[in-house]
Design goal:
Chain A is an alpha+beta fold. Chain A has helices at residues 14-24, 37-42, 78-83, 85-90, 92-99, 104-107, 112-117, 125-131, 228-234, 241-254, 265-286; strands at 7-9, 28-31, 50-53, 63-66, 69-73, 135-140, 143-148, 153-155, 158-159, 166-173, 179-186, 196-204, 210-218, 225-226. Chain A has a five-stranded antiparallel β-sheet. Chain A has a four-stranded antiparallel β-sheet with strand order 11-12-13-14, with helices on both faces. A three-stranded parallel β-sheet of chain A has the order 1-3-2, with helices on one face. The chains are: A alpha+beta, B alpha+beta.
Amino acid sequence: MIPQAFHYEAPTNLEGAIALLQKYGSDAKIMSGGHSLIPMMKLRLATPEHVIDISGIQGLEYIHEEGGALKIGALTKEVALEESSLINDKYPLIADATKMIADPSVRNLATVGGNLAHGDAANDHPAVMLALRASVVAAGPNGDREIPIDDFFLGFFTTALEADEILTEIRIPIPPAHSGGAYLKMERKVGDYATAATAVQLSLDADGKCAQIGIGLTNVSAAPMRASRSEDLLRGQVLTEELIQEAAKMAAQDCDPNPDLRGSIAYKRSIVKTYTARAIHKALERAGA
Amino acid sequence: MANITVHINGVPQTLDVEPRLLLVHLIRENLNLTGTHVGCDTSSCGACTVLMDGRSVKSCTVYAVQANGKEVTTIEGLAHAGQLHPLQEGFKEEHGLQCGFCTPGMIMRCVDLLERNPNPTEEEIRWGISGNLCRCTGYNNIVKAVEYAAQKMQAAEVPAETVA
């Protein structure tokens, strides 16, 4: 499969990349690892006239905690998350999800920023970041702005990024004590998109009640979605089996999957129900409940 | 056209390429190194796996321009002075292939795997090759081949305390 011809630029700094976006507007696409964009270009689902390769920009690959937040540079490769002791020790939700993204060779090039900026509800990081109540930083001609994740995914492959903006950082509030998270993904084979997946992040208060909970769903809606009704049901409560099952049922009702080769609508709702309940249990266990 | 220099198996190659040229086509068609195979052409099967700056990548999903200034190693770059790489030897000794189509990609993936994890468990090997498909062997002999190579490579590294 041969993509349509395009003009290629590889700026070495952010200012240069933004200037190119200002020049080419919506005729340009940003590429980092290329593992979402190139497959779409090979299928000619994407036919940008200009590809701006930002992988050579220094200083956008990092994973560290600072000022109450875990900060992940947009060009951080999935393999770096996979090998990070900080992520593996303290952010089990991210660790779970990263291992399930594509396969080892793809994770060597694919980036966290690209996974989000692509705006695909089938990607895994969007649901994870919804559950973690992250925000993303967009750099544009007028400087940086921080976008809460709930305002970022606007629709089918559509994000809040303007045509002259680049996603540069992901910020995740450092979880309080007695927090836990889990990502459960049903996939037909390694490397496939999720049939359905659930991301859960929760924290418990001193009485063992659920102080905060985030539930994100993968590939069961046009845009990455939060299971808000399920979260509202559980927040402030002791998480009994009955409540967990009710929350899982709500998530299955509220999602909006398409029938495809991965399964029917009913099947996917059933997976959401089962995996949401299991992910809540696993997150609770990890929170030390 | 873009002018790029890619170090393939240690040799710098400077070429003018169309930006849409995929790395696998640069390797096979421009440089006539046909050991790297095109399988699914959708980054699913791993037949096109090569090393880029030491890490395994699926060269059907990398533009040649992305490899500008980088080191690319293909299956042709593994043997030295007639001496097979331990992974090549392992695949031969343990019957790690039948038709051989997946083998170059499988071996290049495992070079990266053993570089990061010199003594993998069976499960780590199976997880490590999960993005490379073999339709002949059922994987068992591939796992044995990787174990063979891991042992051989570790034995070749003389422990410090035995050095006189």
